[in-house]
Amino acid sequence: MLYFRLTLSKFERKSFFKALSQAQKSGQLTVVNRIRAILAIAEGKDIDDIAAILRVSKEAIRQWLKKYLAEGLKALRIVRKSSGGYPGKLTKTQKRQLIKWVTDGPQTVGFSGACWRSPMIQELIYSKFEVFYSVKYISQLLKNLGFSYQKARFAVGGKDPDNQLKREEWLKRTWPEILEKARQKKAYLLFGDEVSFPQWGSLTYTWAPKGQQPTVRTSGNRKGYKVFGLIDYFSGEFFYKTLEERFNSETYKAFLWDVLKKTEKQIILIQDGAPYHTSKALKVFFEQFKYRLTVYKLPSYSPDFNPIEKLWKNIKTGEIHLHYFPTFDALKQKVEEALLRYFGRKKDILKLFGFYNDLKVA
Predict the structure, then answer these.
(1) Least buried of 13, 40, 155, 314, by fewest C-beta within 10 Å?
(2) Residue 154 · residue 215 · CB < 8 Å
(3) pLDDT tens, 171-205?
(4) Are 181 and 268 in contact (CB under 8 A)?
(5) Is 103 part of a structural domain of the chain?
């Protein structure tokens, strides 16, 4: 618990966000966490909550704060140790230790997931050995040490039928009409979808010794934590609702009703053809609120036309892939934290619409 209020001036906040952007671009995960921690403290967040969200110890955050108060923002950055501009080198003993850590998995050295990524390896090397490598070099280093970038076996895929004509019609005529109508009405232009995050986890690529396919623990529980979501094309507003029960007409209708209650604006809703989106109960609901709610259906087999799909993918990749959730509550906490991080980050949501922004629409 912190017993004082940290206040940052406009100039200091600007400097923090500039440093944060630089650290993110260079893949310096440790620096990103340090800066986020101090910014959170300045916003009045409790140190226990910050530690839980960033997956670091409370003592680490206290040390970062002490360094910042004593030396300023520069104390949070990583400083290369080599004098000639070249990265320092790991000794043979350090390389053997690194091989063991990578082979044993991220959780053995304090990371939350079971998937190694280059920024995590970079942080591990610097925190343990105070040797700084760029993220771009990490891949080559791991290859030299006998690792390859692999993906575990199970994956879901499918073939789309030939739906090209309807897809072209959507892009050339339907989408421009929807966009113009939304602008005239000054309405929310919401793309909607739902997702289920399974407790049994999912698989992606990770670093592992050559010839040894990685194995990830699973609870075997096939229960999933479900989310309805909507994102706005114009503002980046993100509406969502979590639930443990099944997706059906009633739960979907309850979600849309919650959104309608939160705003007086007109809403244009773009959704896919899931059965509970087009059921009799939903048709009655849409008719009841047609003075405020206009609904359009995406072409069949066109998840790439729905930007919120990218949001679900980002959350799954960053938060769910290769994670072990021993309890359903552990999964719920992870999903809630991920959703909360995107809530309010309107610029990040707006980036998801790049596909539509690149279309030439008058």
Answers:
(1) 155
(2) no
(3) 999 999 999 999 999 999 999 999 888 776 554 55
(4) yes
(5) yes
Confidence of residue 156 (pLDDT cuts 50, 70, 90): very low
Helix H, strand E, coil C: the string for 238-294 is EEEEEECCCCCHHHHHHHHHHHHHHCCCCEEEEECCCHHHCCHHHHHHHHHCCCCEE
CB-based burial label for 105 (10 Å; 0-12, 13-18, 19+): buried
> What pLDDT, in 10s, does the model give residues 239-286?
999 998 888 999 999 999 999 999 999 999 999 988 889 999 999 999
Last residue of a domain, one of 30, 47, 76: 76
Using DSSP, how many helices (H) and how many strands (E) does the chain show?
15, 7
- Give 42: exposed, middle or buried? Use CB within 10 Å, 0-12, 13-18, 19+: middle
155 in a structural domain: no
Q: Are 324 and 105 in contact (CB under 8 A)?
A: no
Q: How large is the angle between the packed helices 308-315 and 328-342, nearest 10 degrees?
A: 130
Nearest-angstrom CA–CA distance, 280 and 2: 54
CB 112 within 8 A of CB 320: no
Together in a domain, 179 and 243 = yes
Instruction: Name the β-bridge partners of 224.
Output: 198
Mind giving me the DSSP string for 170-215?
Answer: IIIIIHHHHHHHHHHHT-EEEEEEEEEEETT-B--EEEEETT----
pLDDT tier at 159 (50, 70, 90 boundaries)? very low
Same-domain check for residues 67 and 118: no
Q: What is the CATH number of the domain that holds 200?
A: 3.30.420.10
Pick from 307, 316, 80: which is nearest to 198 by CA? 316
Q: Are residues 322 and 224 in the same domain?
A: yes
pTM of the shown model: 0.53
Indicate the residue type of 326.
Answer: P
